[in-house]
Amino acid sequence: EAQVTQNPRYLITVTGKKLTVTCSQNMNHEYMSWYRQDPGLGLRQIYYSMNVEATDKGDVPEGYKVSRKEKRNFPLILESPSPNQTSLYFCASRPLTGYAIQYFGPGTRLTVT
Amino acid sequence: AQTVTQSQPEMSVQEAETVTLSCTYDTSESNYYLFWYKQPPSRQMILVIRQEAYKQQNATENRFSVNFQKAAKSFSLKISDSQLGDTAMYFCAFTRLNTGTASKLTFGTGTRLQVTL
Q: Which residues of chain B have pLDDT under 70?
């Protein structure tokens, strides 16, 4: 089954404790992206990657890091989480050609206390 | 930069009735895609319908249809014969047509739709 997976689905952590949210896709997509969703703001792009070893900032990159060492994986790293990073996070992927449809993971609910 | 505006934070409709969700956008691009995504309580993002800007015909998917007005930069979603399972947050989204680039999805703030008995 073609899908984007994220882990964990739920995470409660404390300020300053480094964490990683994993994202993996099995569709051989070149493009992968991270979004955060906040009430009243919709979804905003954090980082994206056009292919292996090619990442770039989105609209709200502060406080986040990513890496793309393999085509299928695109982890999101919070080295020193803060309460304002409490949010719902989505990973998405799509091919570079075609109808531009992005496939979303199930979301990760992160709470930073 | 592109912007997407959804001016209706919440809407309610009775089962079997028709409801229209509004979306306007601002862009200087001439070729682009527009989407409606549904987010039920499970939080999964589900693609409902897409529209290519170069196509004049409005997209339709079963009970879901759009009214795409390119000159007015308007992209509304009509849900016919509403069902309880349509209860969800609905997001309008925009992306440029050139998919070989880093084109991102720009989302509106969402409309929460409640379908009632």
A: 98-102
